[in-house]
Specification:
The chain has 85 residues and is of the alpha+beta class. It is built from two helices and three strands, in the order αββαβ. The radius of gyration is 22 Å and the shape is elongated.
């Protein structure tokens, strides 16, 4: 019984000290079959990646409204072009 409690304590300690896991959040979504009767896949990091998948299925892509970028500087995206003037 002591061995079982010892092993249980070790398991609890190992699982309790693990790092926190968070869901992935990507900036582009593919809309399949329309907005009301189709599905949505928000698992694309670039617009081109989204369009390559959606194009063959007759779908389209749009920015993910729930996307929150990680902190720090980011390169400009297709929607945020920086012009020299």
């Amino acid at each position: 019984m002591k061995l079982l409690l010892f092993l249980l304590g070790i398991c609890v300690a190992l699982f309790g000290t693990g790092t926190r896991v968070e869901a992935q959040n990507y900036p582009w979504c593919a809309i399949y079959g329309g907005f009301d009767d189709g599905g949505t896949n928000c698992g694309f990091t670039t617009f081109q990646q989204c369009m390559d998948t959606a194009r063959g299925l007759g779908s389209n892509c749009q920015p993910n409204t729930q996307y929150v970028p990680p902190p720090g500087p980011h390169p400009p995206t297709r929607l945020q072009r920086r012009y020299p003037y």
